[in-house]
Amino acid sequence: MRNVLEHREIARLSAALAAHRPLAIETSPDEPTLHAAVMVLLRPNYLDELELLLIKRAEYEGDPWSGHVALPGGRREPDDQSLERTAVRETWEETAIDVARDGAVLGALDDVSPRTIAVRQVVVRPYVAAVVSDVQIVESPEVAAAFWVPLTTLRDTSAWITAEVVAHGRSLRVPAFAHGEHVVWGLTERILRAFLRLFDAEG
Questions:
Q1: What CATH number does the domain containing 90 carry?
Q2: 8-19 and 187-201 helices cross at what angle (nearest 10)?
């Protein structure tokens, strides 16, 4: 199978990420901070067009992201040598996709911080990776569903809407991405927009 890094759009994206210097969110040592990482994971489909992986998180009481559509990822653990390692590990744990074996990390996007979590500061670093087309997904108990979204769908302006969601007992109208029955909003929506800005800037 052809090396996924030789795919024209992936090679272009890899060059753009290599030239991008991710902006880090500075944190205060006096304020408790949770560091996490997520993976914007791409693969070529049978038409050689790129798709992006999204997951729907299982519902757990007390989890602020319970039931949300998101990117694979999670909090950094003490044994993680880097946030990139966190993104790779969490992707494996949640989907059984081994990025190190079946692809490569291309680079990182700017740090983001959720706007709805007030208990302590949360800083998330998004990484972008590409894997071969025939990877198999095995959802962990933390994942209710996992599905691939064509980039052509993601780039369709009609899919970007204003949605009404409920967060912390409040009804909010927020920018969102709609895909079938799924609505992507909040942190993940912001990361996808940042990814598309970089991707389309190099198109």
A1: 3.90.79.10
A2: 100
Question: Does some domain include residue 191?
Answer: no
pLDDT at 119 over 60: no
Domain that holds residue 37: 4-154
pTM over 0.90, yes/no: yes
Strand order in the sheet with 170-179: 160-167, 170-179, 182-185
Confidence of residue 172 (pLDDT cuts 50, 70, 90): confident
DSSP string, 106-170: EEE---B--SS--SSEEEEEEEEEEE-TT------TTEEEEEEEEHHHHT-GGGEEEEEEEETTE
The CA distance from 145 to 94, in Å, is 10
Alpha-carbon span 112 to 25, nearest angstrom:
7
Q: Is residue 56 part of a domain?
A: yes
| Position 64 pLDDT exceeds 80 | no
What's the confidence (pLDDT) of residue 202?
Answer: 59
The answer as to whether 190 is a domain residue is no
Residue 31 has phi, psi (to 5 degrees) of -115, 120
The total number of residues written for the chain in this structure: 203
Q: Is residue 180 part of a domain?
A: no
Q: For residue 1, what pLDDT is reported?
A: 42
The number of domains in the chain is 1
DSSP-assigned beta bridge partners for residue 126: 38
pLDDT exceeds cutoff 90 at 152: yes
